[in-house]
Amino acid sequence: MAVLAGKIAVITGGSTGIGFATARAFRDEGAQVFITGRRKDALDAAVAELGGGVTGVVCDASVRADIDALYQAVREQACGIDVLVANAGIGTAAPLGEVTEEMIDSMVATNIKGTIFTFQQALPHLNAGASVILTGSTAATRPDPGLEVYGASKAAVRSLARGWARGSRAHGFRVNVVSPGGTRTPGLLELIPAEVLKQAEEGIPLGRLAEPKEIAAVTTFLASDASSYVNGAEFFADGGYAQT
Known about the structure:
Elements: E1 8-11, H1 17-28, E2 32-37, H2 40-50, E3 54-58, H3 64-77, E4 81-86, H4 101-120, E5 126-135, H5 148-165, H6 168-171, E6 173-180, H7 186-191, H8 194-202, H9 212-223, E7 234-237
Parallel strand pairs: 1-2, 1-4, 2-3, 4-5, 5-6, 6-7
Helix pairs in contact: 1-9, 4-5
């Protein structure tokens, strides 16, 4: 039996990369899925590829009005939310001495403020026992040079999950974090030169970067009833990079 059969799932940043792979995995496991993306063309292409059972809503996670519009669309088409994946995030690499105010503002707006309001505005729509999954990063505990600010923004995500998990009894949800290591997503491949990625693979105990579907598999477990007693945890899917 499909482990997410009958569940309603919302995935922000679902048009590419890990979010897209997660949407595919959730669809395959029987969920009705809503995905968001900032660019309509990319979102439409993702929905077309994923097919039935997946709805796209244009949404910039750093804009609260967009988040409100997302939940309005979900409310009109579904009965509450069983799984919320706050996945939308951005990363910019810059060595110390070259970090700009714009870089800081954009990462804080999407990775921290966006995560807060994605979760907070979902509260009235979460069904009993809902699973909330935040996308963190191994950069929060082991930031590579140039990714210190990005890592700090993801460390904030981990801290938020710890705090929110304490409200589970009162609100009827559970919240966990999936922290990927280097993953072959369009965002990473565009951000990091190929020779740097090759060097990065050598530092991973498994000897390779992750595929998006491998991260999606961890998220699917946390979305399912098999993880019903997992709350406030951080699951690293990094090939051992930040663990050794």
